[in-house]
Design brief:
Elements: H1 13-20, E1 29-32, E2 41-44, E3 53-58, E4 67-70, E5 73-80, E6 86-96, E7 109-116, E8 122-127, E9 143-148, E10 154-161, E11 180-188, H2 189-193, E12 199-203, E13 218-225, E14 231-240, E15 253-260, E16 266-271, E17 286-289, H3 290-293, E18 299-306, E19 314-322, H4 323-332, E20 336-340, E21 350-365, H5 369-374, E22 378-386, H6 411-423, E23 431-437, E24 439-441, E25 444-446, E26 449-450, E27 459-461, H7 462-476, E28 478-479, H8 486-501, E29 506-514, H9 521-531, E30 536-542, H10 549-554, E31 575-579, H11 580-585, H12 591-596, H13 599-609
Parallel strand pairs: 22-23, 22-29, 29-30, 30-31
Antiparallel strand pairs: 1-2, 3-5, 4-5, 6-9, 6-13, 7-8, 7-10, 10-11, 12-13, 14-17, 14-21, 15-16, 15-18, 18-19, 20-21, 23-26, 23-27, 24-25, 24-28
Helix pairs in contact: 6-7, 8-9
């Protein structure tokens, strides 16, 4: 391994800052090599620092040691676990006897978890999903907390009842002022992780410790150490002859899988989608990581429910199998009968005719986003800017395109700089395709023209090149309309498709900045559905005060994938939309943070669906769909 002097690696400082600012490990780990002449620092590449702690030191030559050779020196390389004082824990939450705030039904609870800082302010760590009509909910979504041995880490848990009309919104978008407060619990993280079984039950009370109302319910927090393992299984379930629980139609079954923990309880780890009106359902493949199932011999509880919109899902039956048992069912092509538990405390339950089958079982390796990037995969940045007339004339100070002589960025410049400065470090040549749309060039309206004004050669150099091309275009491009996304998306998809045919290790990111309402909504949907098979993600920033409801349709955060005019469903979600006014009003640190939060997940979904591994030289043409993973 050749050493790389730190002077050549400083370009990665911004990348490291991006990850560290989000509580993640830095991408490149500087190593201090002592007693070297000359004394220099080095960067160790192609090893995931999230998995290993590295120590390098001079040692005497010995035949009994394994060595890493750098230049003419023999250096001992020790690979161990991460610093035990700084590890991540996953929190599972459940509650009992919550207050009922609904009149005609039960509360629809959600938990928001905060860390309390030294100055008393609260920092949100995450939110669970909403459980419908339940006063004794068990949430599936886990909250990840970084544990630091050397400091006290107070945690605050707020439980809310979410109004029915907000069901279709992602929980991150819910305004807590619109939800009813059900209770608060608090503890110190070390109280949970040092307790036997790592479970702690908290009494809920009013805000700020006010205990005026009693019996607000209990909240149980169960902590598990996050284990960095790439081992996973992909399994596809089907059932036959399920019992019908509906009167005028057939059951709408889904599976929920839980892991049995040390204290005898169970923790939900994943669930399938709902299959409507079917007693012989076939579900999309599930991907379970070793972190979820722990070991192949660990018992799992598989429950089959009939979905009800009221939230009162009716149990059809359950069974207990380990991952090893599921593998045997697949090999033998046999089924396992569900059991309906007895109401009696020590009853054996009724064996049902309904059976569970495993149609597919395979073991695989799951790699992190950082591991792909450190192995040579690149993110290629592309930009498209809206030149429609609704932006206002660039010389008008109220225009969204106004260039302030003081140097203050307009909304377009801000989005380009914030996103570009992050992504540029993942692109080796930093030559970025840049387009405009909805403007007049050469006497005609164009819905996709080169931002640099050239007839050929659409790329500009670096983020500053995009900024310069944008400022120049404002002087010679007329503003027109309407707002069409289809041509720009198709051009980006063509570039991604050409790269795919060349078996390139590239993933493309298109940033579209717009102020208006789409005129070609269906054409845009068609383009996005076609592009969902390609190594491409699309980030959309809405600027100005327009109604951006159409953009929210394109961003399939509600779980419903886009459908084309021919009925084809998108392979995956590739769009992230952010209205800039809401980001700024909500106190987000940057537009980039709001936009890029889903990008690593979209990248990994593409790689895993196509069985592309970090060391792969070829692309397997497969497209397995993954059900919900928590």
């Amino acid at each position: 391994m050749s050493p790389i002097p730190i002077s050549y690696a400083t370009v990665n400082d911004a990348v490291d800052h991006f990850f560290l600012a989000r509580g993640l490990q830095q991408l490149f780990r500087p190593l201090e090599c002592r007693n070297m002449i000359p004394k220099e620092r080095y960067i160790l590449l192609n090893l995931d620092p999230a998995l290993y702690k590295i120590k390098v030191k001079n040692v005497p030559i010995s035949k009994n040691e394994d060595y890493l050779e750098m230049e003419d020196l023999r250096l001992n390389l020790t690979i161990g676990s991460c610093d035990p004082r700084k590890m991540e824990w996953s929190l599972s939450l459940s509650a009992s006897r919550l207050r009922d705030r609904d009149i005609l039904s039960k509360s629809d609870p959600m938990v928001v978890v905060y860390s309390k800082k030294r100055d008393g302010t609260l920092e949100e760590l995450g939110r669970t999903e909403v459980i419908m009509n339940s006063l004794d909910p068990t949430w599936i979504k886990k909250i990840t907390v970084a544990y630091h041995f050397e400091i006290v880490q107070p945690l605050i848990f707020h439980v809310y009842d979410v109004d029915t009309k907000y069901y279709n919104l992602p929980v991150e978008m819910l305004k807590l002022n619109d939800a009813e407060f059900l209770g608060e619990g608090s503890c110190v993280l070390s109280e949970i992780v040092t307790k036997q079984g790592q479970s702690l039950t908290l009494g809920l009370h009013n805000r700020n410790g006010n205990r005026g109302l009693k019996n607000l319910g209990k909240l149980t927090v169960h902590a598990e150490e996050t284990v960095a393992s790439r081992n996973a299984i992909e399994v596809k379930f089907r059932c036959s002859r399920l019992e019908n629980k509906d009167l005028f139609s057939k059951s709408d079954p889904f599976l929920r899988i839980s892991r049995i923990v040390e204290n005898g309880g169970s923790v939900p780890i994943c669930k399938t989608e709902v299959v409507d009106n079917n007693l012989n359902p076939i579900w999309r493949p599930l991907c379970l990581t070793m972190q979820q199932f722990v070991s192949k011999d660990n018992p799992l509880i598989i429950e089959c429910f009939d979905f009800n919109s009221s939230g009162n899902h009716e149990l059809i039956g359950n069974l207990q199998k380990s991952v090893a048992d599921l593998e045997k069912l697949h090999e033998k092509k046999s089924g396992a009968n569900f059991i309906l538990p007895s109401s009696a405390r020590h009853g054996h339950g009724k064996v049902l005719k309904g059976q569970l089958f495993v149609d597919h079982f395979s073991e695989k390796q799951l790699y992190s986003f950082i591991y792909y990037v450190s192995s040579g995969f690149e993110l290629n940045f592309m930009v498209a800017v809206d030149f429609t007339a609704s932006n206002g004339h660039p010389r008008d100070p109220d225009s969204l395109h106004y260039i302030d002589p003081s140097g203050r960025f307009n909304a377009y410049q801000q989005a380009i700089m914030e996103v570009g400065e992050v992504i540029q470090f993942y692109d080796s040549d930093r030559h970025f395709p840049a387009w405009g749309f909805g403007g007049v060039t050469n006497g005609a309206i164009s819905h996709c023209f080169n931002l640099n004004g050239r007839a050929s050669g659409l790329e500009v150099e670096g983020v500053q090149g995009i900024m310069a091309a944008y400022a120049s275009a404002l002087n010679h491009v007329g503003l027109a309309g309407p707002t069409l996304f289809g041509p720009v998306i198709n051009n980006a998809a063509e570039i991604a498709g050409q790269s795919l045919s060349c078996n390139s290790r590239k993933y493309f990111v298109l940033l579209i900045i717009t102020d208006g309402v789409l005129t070609d909504l269906q054409e845009t949907k068609d383009a996005l559905v076609r592009a969902s098979d390609l190594p491409l993600s699309i980030l959309i920033v809405g600027v100005g005060g327009a109604d951006f409801k159409q953009m929210e349709i394109l961003d399939a955060d509600n779980g419903c994938r886009l459908e084309s005019s021919t009925g084809r469903v998108a392979t995956r979600d590739i769009v992230q939309f952010v209205p800039m006014r809401e980001v700024l009003a909500g106190g987000q640190t940057s537009v980039a943070q709001a936009l890029l939060e889903e990008l690593p997940g979209q990248f990994l979904t593409y790689m895993r669906n196509r069985d592309i591994t970090p060391g792969a030289g070829t692309v397997a043409q497969t497209s397995a769909s993954y059900a919900s993973i928590y």
